Amino acid sequence: MNTVCRLVVMLAPHSSLNRLPDAGVGEWYTPVISNTGLHPRPTNATALKAIVPTVDDSWSSTWYVSRNGETVDELYARTRGFLGAFVPRLESTTEGHERILLVGHAASAIALVHSLVGDNMPLRVGCATVSVLDRTKDDDVLAAWTPVGDLAMGDFLSGGVQRDWGMEDVQLQGGEVRVSILHPINH
Q: How many CB atoms lie under 10 A from the CB of residue 60?
């Protein structure tokens, strides 16, 4: 089961949520190495609806992540572009929502928070941590939100924050993410 599918299943008990799966918040993959294939595409809404009937399969993704992967700069460009298109689209097509819940992996979640707050402050997110933001500017999406409490909160989790990760963990070499390829030892 891929990431998007696991997240939708996890949220299934919360029946008051409109589930609009969008690939724009997809996982961050570094650029592919030549001749190694493409990164996976997230599960579409129709396939998710077969598992969680409350998924709205009429929703088509606002943004698709490149299957060739992204540099760190491209990750941030993607999240800014996604937010600039997704939030106005959501506001124009749904009635009466009070909150937007974006669920994603660490790198995407960090880039989303940085883009919404307008500050690339140090931020480490762990498994199932939550960042709550209030919109303070109605005329914009980017840099229009203020954190409510601590970002990447995990105090509600029985084991606290676990497996935290931050953008400072990315190792760059010549401006690109450093990739190590391990070769099996031949005996």
A: 12
pLDDT tens per residue across span 12-49? 555 555 667 777 788 888 888 888 888 888 878 888 88
Structure token digits, residue 173: 């070499």
| Cα–Cα distance for residue pair 9/4, rounded to 1 Å | 9
Residue type, 25: V
Outline where 12-51 has alpha helix (H). Answer: 45-51
Domains and CATH numbers, the chain: 3-177 (3.40.50.1240)
**Six-digit token string for 56:** 């709205």
Global pTM exceeds 0.70: yes
Amino acid at 64: Y
Dist CA 128 CA 119 (whole Å): 22
Q: List pLDDT tens digits, range 103-120.
A: 888 899 999 999 999 988
Distances (CA, A) of 20 to 7, 134, 152, 187: 12, 21, 23, 50
